[in-house]
Amino acid sequence: MDVLTARPTAPLVRGARALRIGAVASLVANIGIVVTGGVVRLTSSGMGCPTWPRCTDDSYVSHPELGVHGAIEFGNRLLTFVLVAIALLTFVAALRYRDGQGKRRDLRWLAAGLALGIPAQAVIGGISVWTQLNPFVVALHFIVSMILIAMSVWLIRKVWSVPARPAGRPVRTLSTVTFIAIWAAVWLGTVVTGSGPHSGDQYSIRTGFDPALVSHVHAAAVYVAIGATIGCVWLLRTRAAILLLVVELVQAAIGLTQYHLGLPVVLVGLHLLGAALAVAAATNLLLSVRSTAVPANDSAELAGVD
Questions:
Q1: Quick count: other Cβ atoms within 10 Å of Cβ 163?
Q2: Looking at the DSSP assignment, which residues form a beta bridge with residue 183?
Q3: Is the pLDDT of residue 27 over 90?
Q4: Which of 34, 91, 233, 297 would suit a FRET pair with 28, their CA atoms being 20 to 30 Å apart?
Q5: Over 90: is that where the pLDDT of 290 sits?
Q6: What are phi and psi of 12, to 5 degrees?
Q7: How many CB atoms lie within 10 A of CB 196?
Q8: C-alpha distance from residue 205 to each of 15, 77, 177 (Å)
Q9: Does an H or E element contain 3, and which?
Q10: Could you report how far apart the first and last alpha carbons of the chain are, in Å?
Q11: CB 126 within 8 A of CB 80
């Protein structure tokens, strides 16, 4: 099986339920913070709290004088503590986890990476405020969230012991190309955002790039990703490949519609959600195949049952 949820194939002795819940919660929370961060930007609330780590020079919390923008930005900051709590609980669950072969250091490292990624993300967010929402810093803030989403998918596959399907070099190469193309499209999407009208604050600088030009370059990367995914669907005929293709097609439709309608905020928000889902689905596809050269007795390790 190659989807994010599957029945485990190895005996789980202790901490399995907590770690499964933590892994799924990490994925949902990291996707959620992408959407709420988009709300901050799309409502021009990026400087609602004009400093960091305080909201203002004399207060850690928003106050009525900052208006709705301060409330929105401060609310998004509070969600960071939710992510921290989920990440720490997931790490503790990974420390307690035991399967048929004992401790799982791979799960501990993944959970630790997720736990450390949240405060790193908060610091980058603070730097974006210090730099008056510099579009390149904001882009890095977004990309780190995408990395955490990919790591969450990896953790889910491991804790649920989802087996990877044996595949030849052409299929593995094509799945890798698809994964890289998705990431290229996501990164180029941040360039488009940094060049467009939704800066997060009316006084924020833009990249200076031609929005129409970078939009077309971004679209080209999307077309490459869709083409590669169609190849994966044709060769693999798995749910992982089909899921990614569906996400890509919906995402492309939203992207084209928002472009021709002048970037309405609702569609831009949906496009942000689609980007997060595309990264998750592309990661799932990449991890759903393995080399046929690996001996049968090592297949469990590649499937996360080590």
A1: 18
A2: none
A3: yes
A4: 233
A5: no
A6: -115, 125
A7: 18
A8: 48, 22, 34
A9: none
A10: 18
A11: no
